[in-house]
Design goal:
single chain, 4 strands, elongated, alpha+beta, 285 residues
Length: 285
């Protein structure tokens, strides 16, 4: 029973997150970008151009054109991703029929590009964080990644540059350039939202006083630390290496803590894309 309640709670939060992300995305699209002939990439961009050329409603096009990709996602990536992506795109279609009737927030193309890019980036980031997608081209890129030498990010970039280049032919070249600007703004926001606002750093510490340094990290920073055994490449002497992950804001405190114990310690700091666990909980005596 407890597991069922937890599953229902997680599913509810996932649906709420997908809904919120899709609403924010559609608001950025219909209230900022579309009125200024600035488009998003992927199937969304194709749908907007076809709407302009053929007069078919965007809400119908975006669902119909995404269905083959979501079916492909169902066959290759699993039912959960396909269901979440389908739900998100249906919310986009429903919200678009509402937002498209409203007056645009800005008719200045530059302002619309900046703030529209921010909004759609936040929206897509929330949807991705909840396990969904707002565009079938991302699913296609994941499938193609297994059969080509290009990464998913490179494939999505290639497709979007081609689609946004077509916007120059359908609308004008200013629209294509603004669309590219919105895409890069959106990309940065997607990474920030989907990966978290507080980035993490991984640290390798080579020290002769590893026990004291390890205890200080555990008790002062309340972070888990792993003790590794290494060997120097030149002298072939044994080395004690500590590895831990801290938030960006804790880096300076960790450096100070380590160098107070061992001024000769060697630290290597690098970005970590995702972290789960690794925090030591304080015990109440």
């Amino acid at each position: 029973m407890a597991n069922q309640q937890l599953l229902c709670k997680n599913t509810l939060f996932k649906v709420l997150g997908l809904t919120l992300g899709a609403v924010i995305y559609t608001a950025g699209l219909d209230l900022f970008l579309v009125p200024n002939h600035v488009i998003d990439g992927g199937v969304i961009g194709i749908s907007l151009m076809l709407q302009h050329l053929l007069g078919i409603p965007f809400s119908l096009l975006v669902v119909l054109l995404n269905l083959p990709f979501f079916y492909l996602g169902y066959r290759r990536l699993g039912r959960g991703i396909a269901a979440a992506a389908t739900y998100a795109i249906v919310v986009v279609a429903v919200c678009s029929s509402f937002f498209s009737r409203m007056a645009p927030v800005s008719i200045d193309p530059l302002l619309a590009t900046i703030y529209g890019g921010i909004l759609i980036g936040i929206g897509v980031g929330i949807v991705i964080r909840c396990g969904g997608s707002t565009d079938g081209s991302e699913i296609l890129a994941i499938v193609l990644d297994n059969n080509t030498s290009f990464s998913v990010g490179e494939l999505v970039l290639f497709m979007n540059i081609f689609i946004m280049g077509c916007a120059g032919l359908v609308f004008n070249w200013n629209s294509a350039l603004y669309s590219l600007m919105a895409y890069f703004i959106c990309s940065r926001l997607i990474d920030t939202v989907s990966e978290g606002l507080d980035s993490s750093k991984g640290i390798f510490i080579i020290t002769t006083n590893f026990e004291a340094v390890s205890d200080a990290i555990v008790h002062d920073l309340h972070r888990a630390v792993t003790h590794l055994h290494g060997q120097g490449g030149f002298l072939k002497d044994d080395k004690d290496v500590l590895y831990c992950v801290v938030s960006r804001l804790e880096i300076q405190k960790l450096k100070t803590t380590v160098h107070d114990i061992d001024p000769q310690a060697f630290l290597s700091v690098f970005d970590v894309r995702e972290v789960q666990g690794g925090r030591v909980i304080k015990r109440i005596p």
